[in-house]
Specification:
By secondary structure, the chain is α+β, with helices and mostly antiparallel strands. The protein has 5 helices and 5 strands. Strands 1-5-2 form a 3-stranded antiparallel sheet. It has a two-stranded antiparallel sheet with strand order 3-4. Helix 4 packs parallel to helix 5.
């Protein structure tokens, strides 16, 4: 199944989030293939204070291997519109712009 078809099938599970680091297993369950997930999965390292990362049980960790959701939206939006350019500042504003490109592609149809 193409990325466009997968996205159409699970669009109601996507959102305009510029901050979350997602577990790639969750996105795999939505139908995204290993090749795509590998391209957006990165090792994220903890920092100090508000930059500390935690596991699902609230324990501090040195790093996690996850998908930065903004990077996921950017890559997916360019599948729907390869020429799209976002000039917004701020992760939330950028996420909303990329999400809207994906939404428009899902709603208005994009040839696969």
């Amino acid at each position: 199944m193409s990325l466009i078809e997968v996205t159409k099938n699970c669009f109601d599970k996507l959102n305009a989030d510029g901050w979350t680091i997602m577990d790639p297993v969750y996105l795999k369950k939505l139908g995204y293939d290993d090749e795509f997930l590998k391209s957006v999965t990165k090792r994220q390292y903890s920092g100090e204070g508000k930059y500390q990362l935690y596991d699902n049980n609230g324990n501090p960790v040195k790093y996690i291997d996850g998908v930065n959701y903004l990077s996921f939206l950017i890559k997916l939006a360019h599948v729907f519109d390869p020429s799209f350019y976002c000039d917004k500042m701020g992760r939330g504003f950028q996420a909303q712009e990329y999400y809207n490109v994906i939404k428009e592609g899902v709603e208005n149809g994009v040839s696969t």
